[in-house]
Amino acid sequence: PDEITVGELASRLKQTASNVIKKLMGLGVMASVSEVVDYDTAALVAEEFGAKVEHEVHVTIEERLFEDVADDPGVLEERPPVVVVMGHVDHGKTSILDAIRKTRVTAGEAGGITQAIGAYQVEAGGKAITFLDTPGHEAFTSMRARGADLTDIAVLVVAADDGIMPQTIESINHAKAAGTTIIVAINKMDKPQANPEQVKEQLTKYELVPEEWGGDTICVPVSALTGQGIPDLLENINLLAEVKELRANPNRRAKGAVVEARLDKGQGPVATILVQNGTLKKGDCIIAGTAVGRVRVMRNDKGEPIETAGPSTPVEITGLTEVPAAGDLFEAVADERLARELADQRAAKQKEEQWGSYQKVTLDNLFSQI
Ligand code: GDP
Ligand code: MG
Q1: Within 10 A of 288 (CB to CB), how many other CB atoms are there?
Q2: How many of the other CB atoms lie within 10 Å of CB of 55?
Q3: Which residues line ligand 1 (CB under 6 A)?
Q4: Mind listing the UniProt keywords for this protein, alphabetically (predicted)?
């Protein structure tokens, strides 16, 4: 759109190509029929023939496909926080996620501790909290590398009998880089060797000063083994969420990110996705990376079929053409045909990039052999 071939320009001006070429020569531009001239040159030539070139604005396929309007603050509603659990190996990340999941039974939820997908919601004080069920930083880092910023709050698990260890520091750095608020769960409080005061002291070296010491880092002593302190941890997560004023607009087309995905023999591609804004409805067409499709079956974190999913809701869906990657952003769209076109475009680009890096590798190998 910012350039045009001489032939095309001639036909639009209803002139012979040689007439146009002559005019171009008059302007000091040498171009054959098949060569292109830029917009400004084309406009000058057109003027000479008494015509005007209207500058076509190039609209990308993304611009046509996606609903890119910002939400009016007035339509925003409170949404649950999205929480990830991080920390050093063996400090109790998996155990804490299990202990939190068990609170669903006492909350009287149907289905109890059955959990079908890689993220789940619990209720504390009448409010939902969404947990990403991938402990450690895999979820976090791989998703952030793909541009998905899912988490609002990071629970940093530190074993009270072990203190801050290398992966604790790594976790702190990841969370800080992402601008995610850290809440510390001082775990294994049931152990006789538990020394929470020492953990707090170590934390201050990483600019995490406990509230009780005048800082703004919430530290909650817990035991994943006995369940002690878990309700307190959830309550504090909710307090933190309130301070952060997390909001979304449930009344627009859904967008969010893929948490995990797999190929199921019977169902085809199955993806756990997290809706970040808007509401996803069964039957909606979505695009996630190079995958497209209509949401055929949508299930909640208990494996129950549902029709709609609002902000911060994790759901499992089927209906995509291929398995998307964790961290791929998804968006519901109105035009399925255009979505498929964009997916093809992305796939082609990916292939090109892969080929490029392949060539680079072989060249590098070649040079290293010389
Ligand atoms: P992760 O590597 O951080 O996921 O740690 P795990 O949850 O797998 O826990 C590592 C070990 O610590 C396991 O043997 C757990 O049973 C144990 N553990 C976890 N939480 C507690 C706790 O609160 N108290 C005690 N005594 N042991 C715990
Ligand atoms: Mg684990």
Answers
A1: 26
A2: 11
A3: 87, 89-95, 135, 187-188, 190-191, 223-225
A4: Cytoplasm, GTP-binding, Initiation factor, Nucleotide-binding, Protein biosynthesis
